[in-house]
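Hey L., structure's done. Input below.
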Amino acid sequence: MTQQPVRRTGRNLAALDPDREFADIYDRMDQLLSFALGGPVSTTTAQGPWVPMADVSETEDSYVIEIDLPGVRKDDVDIQLADQLLTITGEVHEQEGKRWRRRARRVGRFEFRTYLPGDVDTERVDARFEHGVLTIAVPKAEAAKPKRIEISS
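Output:
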C-alpha cells in the first residue's frame, strides 16, 4: 500500500509560511521573557504593536542596537531613552494601489524595548538609519566603563 502526498486544500497559505511562523515564535518568546524578567510586555495581536527583529551588542564604550525596519521612513520612527530603558516605536504604512501575490513583511505599529545593563550617557546617543536598518549607539557613562587596574609588586 502506497501513501499519497497530503494535499492542503482550503487552508490559508500564509499560515504555512515558515518565516512568518518563526517570527511569531520569536515574538511570543520575547513576550514570555519580558513577563518573566519584569520588563514591558509587547504584544503581537492585531490590537497591539509587533516587535521588529533586532540585535543588541556591547563594546568597551557603548551599547549598539541594530533594528531591521525595511520600508520605514525615518520620520515614522520615535526613539526615547529614559534612564536605562530604550524604546523605539513607529509605524509601517500600507502601500496603496498594489495587488499582493505574496506578503511577508509586517505593517502597522511596532515597538521595541530593551533595558541597557549599565549607566549610559544620554547626551551623546547617536542614531543612524541606512538601508532599512536603524543603528543606535548609546555610550556608556564614565562610571560604567571598565577600568584597568595595574598590579603593584
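Strands lie at 54-58, 62-68, 77-82, 85-92, 108-115, 126-130, 133-139. The longest helix spans residues 18-36.

-- N.
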